[in-house]
Amino acid sequence: MQKGMHIDTERCVRAVQSKDARFDGWFFTAVVTTGIYCRPSCPVVPPKPENMRFHPSAAACQQAGFRACKRCRPDTSPGSPEWNQRADLVARAMRLIADGVVDREGVPGLAARLGYSTRQIERQLLAELGAGPLALARAQRAQAARLLIETTPLPMADIAFAAGFASIRTFNDTVREVFALAPTDLRARAPRGSPGNAAGALTLRLPFRAPLNPDNLFGHLAATAVPGVEEWRDGAYRRTLMLPYGHGIVALTPQPDHIACRLVLGDLRDLTVAISRCRRMLDLDADPVAIDDQLRTDPLLAPLVDKAPGRRVPRTVDEAEFAVRAVLGQQVSTAAARTHAARLVLAHGERVDDPEGGLTHLFPAPEALASVDPESLAMPRTRRTTFTTLVRQLADGEVRLGPDSDWPETRARLLALPGFGPWTVDVIAMRALGDPDAFLPTDLGIRRAAQELGLPSTPAALTARAAAWRPWRAYAVQYLWATDSHPINFLPV
Prior knowledge:
Blueprint: H1 9-17, E1 28-31, E2 36-38, E3 52-55, H2 58-63, E4 67-68, H3 82-85, H4 89-98, H5 101-114, H6 118-129, H7 133-151, H8 156-162, H9 168-179, H10 183-189, E5 201-206, H11 214-223, E6 230-233, E7 236-242, E8 247-254, E9 259-265, H12 271-282, H13 288-295, H14 302-307, H15 319-328, H16 334-348, H17 366-369, H18 381-396, H19 407-415, H20 422-433, H21 444-453, H22 459-466, H23 473-481
Parallel strand pairs: 2-4
Antiparallel strand pairs: 1-2, 1-3, 5-9, 6-7, 7-8, 8-9
Helix pairs in contact: 4-5, 4-7, 7-8, 7-9, 7-10, 8-9, 15-18, 15-20, 19-20
């Protein structure tokens, strides 16, 4: 699978005829005889090839006048893996659109964050995705509206503004155009017995491409959980979220064919942002088949992949938070890093009310941490300097960590900070920035695993061997780490 797959007509036809779910989100099939668009795995009888048209996004289908299929619900497909594995302008723009920037700041705000003119942004998105930023954001609003209509008893007026629409009329018109149903009809068609959520609470399913191995994904999040901010309870990873309009609490439970997600939001306008950040944290838009096929080409890695395919990279909902925690975790145990973080949370984090108990705080923002007295930090003086320099630069905007980060530039800025070596920069690149090719050849666990497998164990030699694993070296790290008995590698009981 590659950039611009929708232009490979023959390959797309084969995917549709075989109902291959691996391609869901990579492209969409518009059927000229019915006026609808579908995901490749749509369960209906495939149309004749001459009646198929292929588009790179749901927004492009909508722009061309097609309506969403009521059977396969293409708006609920996993997102394209490209936006998480690429670092170019289009990928960065798509990550920001998913994070709600167009709804909050408009296209000029999107362009300002990326450092390009609005005209350049629109031209590049239109060329690759068949739709500009406004149309892409509109498709996202339609998806959010459908979710709220079908899973909450909220009045339609509340749903319209929560989904990001400027008016009820625009909301009604968009829903009718995209789904060929009025909002009230969509609600009437929702399955009976759907969870009756109170206002501000949602229960939904987060789709992913199979296979997905939850062991190291949830094991890592649970084993490193900061008390008060995160916890593992009743088979779910729970944490607090700092969002644009307020705060939220999410519970994520792995299921065989989806991730069960329960969100409690202080402001429903944060819905799409919360979902986007949870998907990024769990790496749900990855293409595990392509990743594992590449790693299997190494005969020493292949047995690890075959034993537990579908490992994901555990990421984060807050890039700045992760960078701070990476510094707190330098050269100390997982337990010690949690202790350091918990002290900061209690002293400087904003308190929140958890209806279920257990979670008490948001992780403190860089602005709050910039005022911390270095002498109050129970760590060596050199690491205090690293910590205070990082939070000050994050607070001042000298270092920007977010979905719009330019990966090479951000790496260079981090490496220039005192106390930042290759390991710290690469772990931030892997888990905060989302670089799928970040690699940790100096990591003790990686070197130990390499030695046990018969791989080169010195950093230089291991890096040379790992060239064959590109562009998926961050996933190779997960498979190598998983050879150890550390709690991060096991789904909590």
